[in-house]
Design a protein that fits this description.
The protein folds into three domains: 3-155 and 203-243 and 292-326, no CATH class; 160-200 and 252-290, no CATH class; 327-358. Helices cover 26% and strands 37% of the residues. The chain has helices spanning 3-10, 41-46, 53-62, 119-127, 213-219, 247-268, 328-357; strands at residues 21-24, 29-32, 38-39, 67-72, 78-82, 98-102, 111-112, 146-179, 182-206, 228-229, 239-241, 275-304, 307-314, 320-322.
């Protein structure tokens, strides 16, 4: 690859003034803070600021420079950014000792969902955490507690799977009746079989071991209809983690999710029984397609009373999740309040009974 193409592929600069431009989620465009110019992807391609899909392919195969990898010594996270990004903060553990090195290996995905939710919207979601959470510490969701708020593209594998198989179920029907002073119960057991086929389109599997699976499952779903062809220009102003879960490991997770879903679907079709228990199952899963994509997430690192908390926001849908600490003082007061309310209700009922007996 010649020098001209290499520079054209990684240059995120304003066509008007040459200053750095970044992708702005609320606009769905790139903006220059210097001259306030706004540009769509086609304009950037015209001015050689964004590569085509073919050039992206060449970049992935031929070069390993100009993108850099930030390696956290504390938790091991590897985050990809363009060469203009000055990041010295790990979005996962809050560690500040991050080493910068040249990116090695392939990382360019086939598709990407650009950020739709802005940094301000992520901040507002954090400030609104107190709604409906009476046990949360009083000042926990203050903006000054935020150590870092970062937009990160998380690596994902999407698996399209064809599943087929059958299950053998032991099902029961229970009848009870009374004759004289005796209660009777009759339990009939039936052997029930279900078989069928299902197709799953784009089962997501987190490609990063640093992003907790439970957290990611909660932040789903993403609308994959809004995915676009990957272009490195979308990384401008954001970070992107390099996957460390390869497609073969992710395949096992996807197949397990498909198997559980088809089993549950079979069970839900068995109605009119008191209980159902799977005795045997035979499920076959075939991988039809695998896609490697980047999905947008706002990571919010919070430090409260010398302890770190991590929150994540689906930067497409706005879903905001994370573990919230519980205030011991508020929990005690809440418990006392519940006790007093129950005590008052009991006293009121007792008074009514007493008055009614007079």
């Amino acid at each position: 690859m010649n020098k001209e193409l290499r520079e054209r592929a990684i240059d995120h600069k304003c066509p008007n003034c040459g200053a750095k431009i970044v992708f702005v989620p609320e606009l769905g465009k790139w903006k220059c803070d210097n001259c306030k110019g706004e540009f769509d992807l086609e304009t950037l391609k015209k001015y050689n600021n964004a590569s085509s899909a073919e050039n992206n392919k060449n970049i992935e195969e031929d070069i390993d420079t100009n993108y850099v990898e930030y390696h956290c010594k504390n938790c091991g996270a590897k985050i990809v950014a363009d060469e203009n990004t000055a990041s010295t903060f790990c979005v996962y553990c809050g560690n500040t000792a991050i080493l910068k090195s040249k990116l090695s290996g392939k990382f360019a995905p086939s598709k990407i969902i650009p950020f739709k939710k802005s940094k301000d919207e992520a901040l507002e979601a954090f400030k609104n955490l107190s709604k409906g959470k009476p046990l949360m510490p009083k000042f926990f969701n203050k903006s000054e507690n935020i150590e870092k708020l970062s937009g990160v593209y998380i690596p994902f594998w999407l698996y399209s799977i064809s599943s087929s198989g059958n299950i053998d179920v032991s099902a029961t029907k229970v009848i009870t009746w009374t004759s004289g002073d005796t209660n009777y119960t009759k339990t009939d057991t039936y052997d029930v079989n279900r078989e069928g086929k299902m197709k799953f389109d784009r089962i997501p599997v987190d490609g990063s071991t640093h992003f907790e699976d439970d957290l990611m499952n909660t932040i789903e779903p993403f609308n994959y209809d809004e995915m676009v062809d990957y272009n490195h220009a979308y990384l401008s102003g954001f970070l992107a983690e390099k996957y460390d879960v390869d497609s073969s490991k992710g395949e096992e997770v996807a197949k397990k999710r498909a198997e559980e879903t088809i089993k549950n679907t079979f069970l839900e079709s068995i109605k009119g029984y008191a209980s159902t228990v799977i005795k045997n199952s035979n499920i076959n899963n075939t991988i039809d397609n695998i896609e490697y994509v980047l999905l947008p997430v706002w990571m919010v690192n919070v430090k409260y009373k010398d302890k770190y908390y991590t929150f994540a926001m689906n930067a497409q849908t706005g879903e905001f999740i994370g573990d919230i600490p519980i205030s011991k003082e508020r929990a005690i007061l809440f418990g006392i309040g519940i006790f007093l309310v129950i005590a008052l209700i009991v006293l009121f009922i007792s008074f009514l009974v007493y008055k009614g007996g007079m």
